[in-house]
User: What shape does this take?
Amino acid sequence: MPRTIIEPFRIKSVEPIRWTTRAQREKLLRAAHYNLFLLSADDVLIDLLTDSGTGAMSTHQWAAVMEGDESYAGSKSFERFRTSIQDIFGYTNVIPTHQGRAAERILFGVTCKRGDVVPNNTHFDTTRANVEFVGAEAVDIVISEGREPQNRHPFKGNMDVTALRELIAHVGRERVPLVMLTVTNNAGGGQPVSMDNIRQVSAACREHKIPLYFDACRFAENSYFIKLREPGYESKTPKQIAQEMFGYGDGCTMSAKKDGMANIGGFLCTNDDLLAQEQKDLLILTEGYPTYGGLAGRDLEAVAVGVQEALEEDYLRYRIASTAYLGNHISEQGVPIVQPPGGHAIYLDAREFLPHIPPDQFPGVALATELYLEGGIRSVEIGALMFGAAAKMDLVRLAIPRRVYTQSHIDYVVEIILEVWKKRSSIRGLKLVYEAAFLRHFTARLEPLAAKA
Ligand code: F0G
Assistant: This one.
């Protein structure tokens, strides 16, 4: 293979990005109280805040948008949406929602009650919040390797099946309304789950007659990792792998803002017709009629095309290679990252990067704000600011939007990170001067600490 990553697309429409000077960025950051969420996106050069809803749509998707049927009930767009999703996911009921968390709310709303327990490899924050909102407990049981940043296990998203069986035995089957598997494991570094692990989790669920649901946001990336890393899958297509994977489950929640390649949208699938009826009743109450679920017909069209495009091998090869390219080029120079590189993001280990900054002075925020000052790059802290004292790690996530940035953009990001790495000993911690009662990271205000005399 050639060494250069060739983006498997040509660019037909461009969106300018804006340079700022370091002096301007210092001023902008001060005005944003050292919180990158409070910056105007226009003042960011390369935006790696999230891969959610930030991707570029293809000409086929835009053409499909024009075919959107905006009928309130029974639209053709819904038929195309359902057909495309069933082709990959195989579930009998497909319920559109405006994004992933709406599917979560409806799923947990109809299946869980106070005192229930929901096991997952690792709950994403909205998934955890929706489980807890109905009074149930969200339990993370990823394998121990998944919690070690330097461990290069090929499937660090795997669930600990022994822990799952022990949990079911301990709390009793009747308190476990469903088991979830998040593919790939976002909160654990964008790490994949193996087919073998999916099969074992599925077997444990079937023995106890507990339904297995996937949090399927990055299902295409997970399928490609299985193709690359799991014996027996080398010559299967990502689509065949995805079909097999979903065959071991009973349903899924999905944010189409990730591997749906759309800017908005999601869905909830289930093979349980009775449950689907209850879910649709709730959907009508809060999202919309079951043939649009809070989306426009044109959004359904974009997702119908997008989920198929996410499985194209040329695309996935480029996608996974460009994320690894970023991770490998900085880790070769000693920059500490969560290994191996994930599917959608690279996670910098801020405690290792800035060992002189204690966790209560927010090393993740210090690193993220320095990346902005140095090169106009926006990332997100996942650590002491987001989780408070409960944070086990201080990470900075560099999430890569789909089909948006080219290799030269990524080269620039590498250069900036290496510049910051060189001057790491001069970076200072911060103190919190304002925090909201919950989800404080979105609105927190901080101030840099004065340099030691
Ligand atoms: N599950 C996972 C694994 C996610 O990563 C997300 C969103 C959701 C569910 C919720 O989907 O945003 O459509 O409601 N993750 C984004 C991120 C926000 O930046 O990682 P949503």
Notes: The mean pLDDT is 96. The chain has 16 helices and 14 strands.
